[in-house]
Amino acid sequence: MKKYFISLLLTCTTSISFSQIHEIGFFLGGSNYIGDVGNTNYINPNEVGGGLIYKYNLNPRIALRGTFTYIPISGNDTKASSPYRKQRGYSFTNTIHEFAAGIEFNFFEYNIREHKTSFTPYILAEIAVFNYKTIDYITTNNRSIFENTFSYSIPMGLGVKGRLADNLAYAIESGIRLTFVDNLDYTTDKIARLNFAGTGNDHYIFTGISLVYTFGRPPCYAPRE
Hints:
Blueprint: H1 2-16, E1 22-34, E2 47-57, E3 62-76, H2 83-88, E4 91-106, E5 119-138, E6 144-165, E7 168-179, E8 203-215
Antiparallel strand pairs: 1-2, 1-8, 2-3, 3-4, 4-5, 5-6, 6-7, 7-8
């Protein structure tokens, strides 16, 4: 019986020391695009976006995460540093709806319930599916006909997160989405008048701050006799 209670106490103590395992919240921030139109600064937010986030903490160092993000993007050649782009004068706007899932790795052990471990930098790696508009064709009266399409990307980023209250945490994060398409700006080799850009893939970046509510504890199991 004594060994039973000692084992149960150690199991519960270990579980409780790992704080809550679920995090759910929202984030807001700015987005920018890197491609064949406009400037090429990597972190230069010019649109406002946001979304929802859920995390499942496997342990104090690793969390699984899923996000939905609304990401407007735009580019304008008049704001580019390249004289060629300034003279060309092309501009566009598009909207990306992104679903992503991946892993978050903390540099330090993270436990929102303990002040000594309630702050850490982290890195993230995800796989994302996103929806955006492309130009299907241009009519004889010069009207662009759009269609929705899907593609995928590899989001990677850096961030820092910390405790605001017992069950409330924040994070500041910036991540680049490496895509496998070159038509986020509507340039395409399928339409002659829009075939004027490079062949490199387009990318987009989101930088913002999130607020999450943490809840749930790892179960405390009693060993069977």
